[in-house]
Amino acid sequence: MTFWRRRKPKWPPGGFRSDPLGAQRFREVPEADAPPDEEWADPDPEAGTYEPWESDEFTQAEGSDAADYDLEPEEEDRPGVVRGVFFGRPARGVPDTDASQPHVVSTILSKKPGKDAARAVAWTLGILAVVSTLYWWGPPGFAAALPASGETVFEQGETWRLLTAIAAHADAIHLLSNAVFLAWLIYLSYGAFGSSLYPWSAVPLSAVALAVTLEGYPPNIRVVGASGMLYLLAGAWLTLYVLVERRLSVAKRIVRVVGFFLVVLVPTSIRPEVSYRAHGIGLFFGICLGLAYFLARRDTIRAGERWEWD
Fold first, then answer.
1. Of the N and C termini of the chain, which has fewer Cβ atoms inside 10 Å?
2. pTM for this one?
3. 183: three-class secondary structure by DSSP
4. Cα Rg for the chain, rounded, in angstroms?
5. Are β-strands 222-223 and 148-149 bridged in parallel, bridged antiparallel, or unpaired?
6. Contacts for 225 with CB less than 8 Å, ≥ 6 apart
7. How many Å apart are CA 18 and CA 83, to the nearest integer?
8. Whole-angstrom distance, CA of residue 28 vs CA of residue 17
9. Class of domain 115-309
């Protein structure tokens, strides 16, 4: 096969030359009265043209391997040697196996969360415990100012309730059930993405999600609890997991996310005192947050990946 064209190399009559497979070739010296060989005619410097030549056809020797040939850097301009691929196979510097593919061996999700993540969890749980305790046993006037409702937020303009209602909980069981999963999600989110995701993005967006939730309820319905923020963080984390964790195939990532959603986030029973509307709206806002966060910090996230060859 013809795989290279270039100008005729300077090859003195009677000299030896090695082809790309190392075989010695000898150019015969024509007789004095014989006409010059047109194939090897010298270029005409005045015309500015030269006669191109084609390398001979040859195939790889039986039982040999292209990786066995030591292609020195100065040989890259010789016929038969191309950069990157040598006869359809990887050239020097590229692993010579059919399975040679770069793959991600670590991402920003691979590192273990540090002490800052643990402190963020401790501060969050502490705030929830203090505010919930005040809601249970605090002064009546103070406790009444914590829950959120459509009447107090939209009609009376008490927008701070969108934050205090997230911290207050109806009872200890309500607090513990939210605290377990919330602590785990905060630990992972803060450890991988820092404070930009939680609390500076997740907490304000949780307040917005709660406001949207109150729009669908009667004005006198009061809402308390961090369930909406829990589902928002879960939606953001699962979305970012699918987009960031490229150590696994897309199918495996989706299967894991769906399994987590069905096991952890889907309720096993329906209770009238639980605001499932807040769960669904929080999950939707979390998915939007995960997509927006990834698009805004795509380069930084991808820069944290480490690739290796098989």
1. N
2. 0.68
3. helix
4. 35
5. antiparallel
6. 165, 166, 168, 169, 170, 174, 178, 275, 278
7. 19
8. 12
9. mainly alpha
By CB neighbour count within 10 A (0-12 exposed, 13-18 middle, 19+ buried), where does 8 fall?
middle
Q: Number of H helices and number of E strands within the chain?
A: 10, 10
In tens digits, what is the pLDDT along the chain, a chain of 310 residues?
444 444 555 555 555 555 555 555 545 555 555 555 554 555 555 555 545 444 444 444 444 454 444 444 444 444 433 333 333 333 344 444 555 578 888 999 998 999 999 999 999 999 999 999 999 999 988 899 999 999 999 999 999 999 999 999 999 999 999 999 999 999 999 999 999 999 999 999 999 999 999 999 999 999 999 999 999 999 999 999 999 999 999 999 999 999 999 998 998 888 888 889 999 999 999 999 999 999 999 999 999 888 887 6
Residue of 256, 279, 252 whose CA lies nearest to 266: 279
Q: Could you state, in order of their start, the residue ranges of all structural domains in the chain? A: 1-98, 115-309
Token reading at 255: 């299967």
**Total residues belonging to the chain:** 310
